[in-house]
Amino acid sequence: MFFYIMLTFIIMQRLLELAVAKRNEKWMLGQGAVEIGTSHYKWIVLVHSLFFVSLASEVVLMEKQLSSLWVLLLIMFIITQAGRVWVITSLGRFWNTKIMVLPETEVVVKGPYRFLKHPNYVIVALEFLVVPLLFEAYITMILFSLLNLFVLAVRIPMEEKALCAFTDYDNKTGQQARFWPAKK
Q1: How much is the CA Rg of the chain, to the nearest whole Å?
Q2: What local confidence, expressed as pLDDT, does residue 172 receive?
Q3: Which CATH architecture best describes the domain 2-170?
Q4: Environment class of 96 (CB within 10 Å of its CB; exposed 0-12, middle 13-18, buried 19+)
Q5: How far is 174 from 71, CA to CA, in rounded Å?
Q6: Where is it predominantly found (predicted)?
Q7: Coil, helix or strand for 180?
């Protein structure tokens, strides 16, 4: 029962995020934003959609159980969700699931963006680990962690190139770590 509650919660959360992204996209386009990377976006959507199919299939068909470390993993999941909310609220109208850049706009360097260039991708990577581990879905964890690495290997350089071309991104974030806070 807990699995179905978690799965429903995560799917509903993602649908809400897509609605927020669509609203932000409409606003940004109205302000003159440029969309980059449309050719790879479908692959990101596919990976994220198939994650849920794989997770549900593995847990249900292989009769996986809740991990004995479920309390720790649930705490980690809650922390990632708090991080997700922090990312979205920090970017405000600039948050999107697509690469959308508003030329000549100052890059957001508040919230988690003070420490990392890509905190959202760190959170997604952690979710691809934590959620399957919670239900001992090891095949899904390994497969989708690897697929996520592949899509991010395309997306991140494309996103950074677009931000450098249209904003002050390099000046604002030049010394920041991409994924893990650097020691100062």
Answers
A1: 17
A2: 75
A3: Up-down Bundle (1.20)
A4: buried
A5: 38
A6: membrane
A7: coil
